[in-house]
Each structure stands twice: as structure tokens, then as C-alpha cells.
UniProtKB/TrEMBL annotation:
Domain of life: Bacteria
Catalysed conversion reaction: uridine(13) in tRNA = pseudouridine(13) in tRNA
GN (gene name): truD
GO molecular function: RNA binding; tRNA pseudouridine(13) synthase activity
Record flagged with keyword Isomerase: yes
SUPFAM superfamilies per UniProt: Pseudouridine synthase
InterPro entries noted in UniProt: PsdUridine_synth_cat_dom_sf, PsdUridine_synth_TruD, PsdUridine_synth_TruD_CS, PsdUridine_synth_TruD_insert, TruD_catalytic, TruD_insert_sf, TruD_pseudoU_synthase
The entry's keywords: Isomerase, tRNA processing
Name this polypeptide is given: tRNA pseudouridine synthase D
Species name: Sulfurimonas aquatica
UniProt key word Isomerase: yes
Length: 339
């Protein structure tokens, strides 16, 4: 399963490390009301998974971790900010909460708990190393190009585990050759199974776009689109003009039950990456995303480039970097920066 990109070019070699100093993620939350029975906490965490952070709050407050709401999972090896929700009756105890890797930045009331997906997107700030002056110019040009033309919305390497062992587990479980008791693990493996199919479908569509459309994503008759309000629809003709204006985006299938499938020419490709027998709920995912608010700063003396950009929810910063580098990144042993 290879992640290929719309432009076929020579790779650009640079390095980056996922650690607390060089990989920063800030969740962009919704407009919380300011009143209600839930407290929305804006949290900063360092070198810690979202689940581990929630477990610390649950332990401190002596409540079930499922009572704590969150909008998305954030990287462990990074400095990240995100929002969580807890019933307002715990506000007094939360004022005394202290943890070396967690800091409460602010709090606000809201009418209901945060649910998965209750965010606008994420702002990434990443340091790239071993970047010379020529490469810095190339990186900036390609980043700006992706802002205008978009890039494939693959699931990144983080989705599939360090050695791809989760993929094999998922396939065996779906085939009935592996029994999993743990409900959370089961759900996780099914999401991996869906993600593998999506990435394979997207790679075929990208390859077709390279060959037939000069590296611009090729829209097909029967594609399903999502508009700026989140409405899914199938037009009679490909929406080229609105797609270029970023008003609509074509979607790909996360196979399962109760989800719309594409039709016509689009369906001929999609059917190869579908599993009509999968009982779990299916979804549609944007095939192309448009990075926004890109900022870059190059430090010539240290061959270091700082790049900041905003992506829609569910998208991967490492995929944005792969698109620029024109090569796949893989999970590796994470090093802590030297102090």
C-alpha cells in the first residue's frame, strides 16, 4: 500500500522529528457557548497520548474515563493543545489539578459534552532539518501549490502501527481467523481495515490523475461530493468549477453499512476497495484537502526551516510533508531533542 502523490518529481530530502520541541499541534475548537452544565477545558499536553491524558483526569476525579469528552486524538510525541469536556460539578477540583505533562490553559462552559469530530481542524508547527537554501525555495513553492490545488487526504503511517502488524491483525479478524474480545481494539482494527481500502482506492485515483489529467485530481462521473456545509451529494456532471473554487470536494469510501456508494465510472473503481459484508458503519472521507494559512521561516545558518499550516480535522501533517518531499515516511524510533 503505497501513498503516491499528484506530482511525479524528484524527492526532496529533509528530516523532522516528532518530539515536544519540533512538532507542535494546536486543535482549533468550535465556538463554545459560555454557559451550560459542562466545562470545556483547553489542555496543553507534552509527550503523552490523548487517552493517557484523559486517564489522568479520570483518576484524579475518580470518574469513568468515558465521561470525559474529546474531539480528536493528538500525537504522543509532540507538544499539543486540545479541548476536553467534563461535567461542571467537578470545576472546584479541577482548579487544584496538577500534572508535570498536562496544563489547563483555560476553561469555558458549554451546553453539552464534546463529541468526536467537534473541531474545525488542527494547526501544525514543525521544524524541518538539513534543508539548504535551494531546498527551502522548493519546499515553499510546493507548499503554496498544495494550498491552491490540494493534496490527497491519505491516512498517514501513524494510523497503521509501527510495523504494519495492525493491518494484518485487522484482516485476520475481518476474515474470521482471529477472535478479539476487547471492544475498543475491535473498533480500532475495523477502522484500520477501512483505512487501508481507502488509501488503496485513493492511490489508484491519484495514479489515474497523473496519467490522464496532468497531475490535477481527475473527477469522474458518479463521484460523491461534500460541500462547505458538510452536505453529501451526487451531481449529474463532475463539479470541476466548484472543486477548483474549493466549494466542493470529492469523497472516497470507508466501507461499511449505511453509507452512500458512488455510481457510474467512479463506482467501477470504488467497488474494488469495498466490502459489502462489513457490518460496521461506513463513512465518506474527503479525497482531497486544502492546507491553509501556510507560514515558513528559514534559518540559513542552521539549515532549519520552520513550517506552520492548518489542515481540516482527520488529516495528517505527515501526509502534507510527504506530498512536499515526494516520498513516503515511515514510523521510526522517536528521539527526544538534546537540551
Amino acid at each position: 500500500m503505497q501513498r503516491i502523490y499528484l506530482e511525479e518529481k524528484e524527492p526532496i530530502h529533509f528530516k523532522f522529528e516528532q518530539n515536544e520541541d519540533d512538532f507542535i499541534v494546536d486543535e482549533i475548537g468550535l465556538d463554545w457557548k459560555g454557559s451550560g452544565n459542562y466545562t470545556i477545558l483547553h489542555i496543553k499536553k507534552v509527550e503523552m497520548t490523548t487517552w493517557d491524558m484523559i486517564a489522568e483526569f479520570a483518576k484524579y476525579l475518580n470518574l469513568n474515563a468515558e465521561k470525559i469528552g474529546y474531539a480528536g486524538l493528538k500525537d504522543k510525541h509532540a507538544t499539543t493543545t486540545q479541548y476536553i469536556s467534563i461535567e461542571a460539578r467537578y470545576e472546584k477540583e479541577l482548579k487544584r489539578f496538577k500534572h508535570p505533562q498536562i496544563k489547563i490553559l483555560s476553561s469555558k462552559r458549554h451546553s453539552h459534552a464534546i463529541r468526536m469530530g467537534d473541531l474545525v481542524g488542527n494547526r501544525f508547527t514543525i521544524n524541518l532539518f538539513e534543508v539548504n537554501q535551494i531546498q527551502a525555495g522548493q519546499i515553499e513553492k510546493l507548499a503554496r501549490k498544495s494550498e491552491k490545488l490540494g493534496l490527497p487526504n491519505y491516512f498517514g503511517y501513524q494510523r497503521f502501527g509501527r510495523d504494519g502488524d495492525s493491518i494484518e491483525q485487522a484482516k485476520k479478524m475481518i476474515a474470521g481467523d482471529l477472535h478479539i474480545e476487547d471492544a475498543k481494539l475491535k473498533k480500532f482494527l475495523i477502522s484500520i481495515y477501512q483505512s487501508v481500502y481507502f488509501n488503496e482506492w485513493l492511490a489508484e485515483r491519484v495514479k489515474m490523475s497523473r496519467e490522464q489529467n496532468g497531475g490535477k485530481f481527475l473527477l469522474l462521473e458518479g463521484d460523491l461530493y461534500i460541500d462547505s456545509k458538510g452536505k453529501l451529494f451526487t451531481p449529474k456532471q463532475p463539479q470541476q468549477k466548484d472543486f477548483e473554487a474549493k466549494k466542493v470536494v470529492p469523497t472516497g469510501l470507508l466501507c461499511g453499512r449505511g453509507v452512500y456508494r458512488s455510481t457510474g465510472a467512479a463506482a467501477e473503481i470504488e467497488a474494488k476497495y469495498d466490502d459489502g459484508f462489513l457490518y460496521d458503519k461506513g463513512l465518506r472521507r474527503e479525497a482531497i484537502i486544502f492546507p491553509k494559512d501556510i507560514e515558513m521561516k528559514y534559518t540559513n545558518d542552521f539549515d532549519k526551516m520552520n513550517i506552520a499550516f492548518t489542515l481540516p480535522k482527520g488529516s495528517y501533517a505527515t501526509v502534507f510533508l510527504e506530498n512536499i518531499a515526494s516520498k513516503e515516511f515511515k514510523a521510526k524510533k522517536v528521539k527526544k531533542p538534546k537540551k
